Amino acid sequence: MWNEFKQFALRGNVVDLAIGIIIGAAFSKIVDSLVGDIFMPVIGAITGGLDFTNYFTPLSEAVTAPALAEAKNQGAVLAWGSFITAAINFIIIAWILFLLVKGMNRLRRTEDVKTGTADKPAEIPADVKLLTEIRDLMKAGRSL
């Protein structure tokens, strides 16, 4: 059983996934800082001091604090400003990943052009060719 587990754990896909998760966690911290420290202050300056992170709706009459952290200690709150910030984080991450994949695809196309594999059609497997011939013969009404 140990050998099977070791074989599973050291498979390329599992290691790639683990590396992706670690890089994703680090990337998430960078994006959180980008949003919290750069974008949100700029948005706040443009909108006259608007800071989404402190916007909330109290769900209890006991909540009287003006700041979200204090309000959470007093009772239940609907922290919709935090949700807006998380949504902005998601949009930024999605946009950056889109640009990253787009750039990688452009690099791949450039490499394909350099190596001469850009316009070559994919090789059709032999079994698919055989099935295509059988289909064409059956359409023509001929027997095998």
From TrEMBL:
It is a multi-pass membrane protein. It comes from the Bacteria. The chain crosses the membrane at residues 12-31, 77-101. It is found in: Cell inner membrane; Cell membrane. The keyword Transmembrane applies. Its main location: membrane. Keywords: Cell inner membrane, Cell membrane, Ion channel, Ion transport, Membrane, Transmembrane, Transmembrane helix, Transport. Belongs to the MscL family. Homopentamer. Channel that opens in response to stretch forces in the membrane lipid bilayer. May participate in the regulation of osmotic pressure changes within the cell. This is Large-conductance mechanosensitive channel. It comes from Microvirga arabica. The lineage of its organism: Bacteria, Pseudomonadati, Pseudomonadota, Alphaproteobacteria, Hyphomicrobiales.
